[in-house]
Amino acid sequence: MVTLKERQICAIKQMLNLNQPQTKTVAAEPVWKILIYDRVGQDIISPLISIRELRELGVTLHVQLHSARDSIPDVPAIYFCAPTDENLGRICQDFQNGLYDVYHLNFISPISRQKLEDLASAALQANCVANIHRVYDQYVNFITLEDDMFVLKHQNSDNLSYYAINRANTQDVEMEGIMDSIVDSLFSVFVTLGNVPIIRCPKNTAAEMVARKLEKKLRENLWDARNNLFHLDASQAGAFSFQRPLLIILDRNVDMATPLHHTWTYQALAHDVLELALNRVVVEDDEKPVGGARPKGRSCDLDSRDRFWVSHKGSPFPTVAEAIQEELEQYRNSEDEIKKLKSTMGIDAESEVAFSMVNDNTARLTSAVNSLPQLMELKRLIDMHTKIATAILNCIKARRLDSFFELEEKIMSKAALDRSLTEILSEAEFGTPEDKMRLFIIHYICNGISDAEYQRLETILQEAGCDLSAMPYIQRWKSIMQRSSMPVNSHYEGGGTKTVSMFSKLVSQGSSFVMEGVKNLVVKRHNLPVTKITEQLMECRSGGEIDDYVYLDPKLLKGGETAPKNRAPFQDAIVFIVGGGNYIEYQNLVDFIKQKQTSNSTRRIIYGASTLNNAKQFLKQLSLLGQEIKNTN
């Protein structure tokens, strides 16, 4: 099955091939060209296509649209940018200055008729109409981070954030703009997939606003005979099976504990403590900088080209540390084998006699030498993951993240704590003020708390240097949720954890990871609130709060809003979170759908979000919202 990521890569590569379909035959010499993109275009391409791949596609130079650029004649220029006034102004300037002989203009989302006419008149004035070879709407206005995960924005994502959507003083016009922006990107996702979904969402939320606008946009396109984007030819048939996918649009408010939860899996930890962004993480070098210089950072790419990452990004951290150690042992064994072969053949001594007994050993050495490039790549990956895992381990030990994770799992699964929260939060060495705040908010959301206890804990947190400005917002959110049909406490079951024997392999093999003092926690499988809702909707179960979910089918001329009875379960779903997603939810859905696979049916879930936030970013947004409430009271 073709994934969303593969389809988007295919669309970008076709664009870089001057919008000609790529042929399967051995490619001739590529046409050399330059690529000019804005920041949105850069964010879309960056996780998909490496610089080496760009070169192979004939891109000799890739530059920012708003940078100072010299005229380069005789080479086609491919523009890849959003059709904003600022970008179009700069393109018109390039026409005036006659920077290039051939222009291929590709807009990330559709350019309006009015803007296209303005562009045409600018080209007339600059006398370069003949130089503009193509103008394309690309419908790729989203960022694919995994085969089954996408976000809408990375840079300048604040205008799609939880804060932007939930601010008290957001004007109606601003809100419309935010919703239109989300709908524009979701529409691009379905054009890329080649499928029209059935949409479900909770009533009276931002998710419903998005759902209704998207349904209208899809319906209008389906009934537009001239511009229907879903009548694809047979070679481009939809990414899914004959069954239509289910699009579940949810509001971030459905689960506020998970975005603050301390985590224990590799990818989510990299996002939480190392700020993983667009599949890249920067790890500071060990060497101390000279003088007052800033420490140097090493940029590490973590994507599907990295076999180790693909296998272990969803694994608990201790498992990752053990796996790195095993890979290192394998590498050392292979290296030793080559050294032994060389010495038995006397190659080190370069003696004449050695070469008379090469028959059997030559074949083995040739095979070993041929495997050297793979060995070098393996060594590079081992070194990189050792560096990343060490940086994460240092954070775990310094901030006691294993204990925070264990405590939060207990709170979410309503298990008794070994010590009282008062005692835990009073401990000076236990985590940062931010870690304590996250633990406290999760406790507040998941458990009832008396006013007296709240005041006692509030004093302790203030003494620990915590910023409590998020609390007025969280209190308001909880009271609204309790009045609505969505009781907060019943959503969480938490997996709970069990501690298994200490990392035997790491201790016995003299590992580079010093794991003393870190708990080897094994998490029990459990479904988070978003996963529970997804399961109920995919299985078409009735009962509970999802009975109230809106049902929209863009293919029906008259929109029926009640789900048909006795419908077969959905094989494919896209789960989209308005107001920001996170890797914890993504991993939970990945684990859930893995369990659902059977020999005769493949089920798939794609996870999407307007933005991707780690706990620090999310807490900051909650603090801003809390401050606003405080200022108005």
Report on the architecture of this protein.
The chain is an alpha/beta fold. The chain has 22 helices and 16 strands. Helix 4 runs parallel beside helix 5 and helix 14 (about 400-410) runs parallel beside helix 16. It is globular and about 75 Å long.
Descriptive keywords:
single chain, 633 residues, alpha/beta, seven-stranded mixed beta sheet, 22 helices, 16 strands, 45% helix
How large is the share of residues in beta strands?
A: 5-15%
- Give the helix tally: 22
Mean pLDDT score, rounded? 87
Q: Give the structural class.
A: alpha/beta
Q: Could you give the distance between the termini?
A: 55 Å
Number of strands: 16
Regions with little confidence, pLDDT below 50 for 5+ residues: 233-241, 349-356, 501-510
Helix content: 40-55%
Strand order of the largest sheet: 6-7-16-15-9-8-14
- Report the major sheet: 7 strands, mixed
Our Rg estimate from Cα atoms comes to: 28 Å
Shape: globular
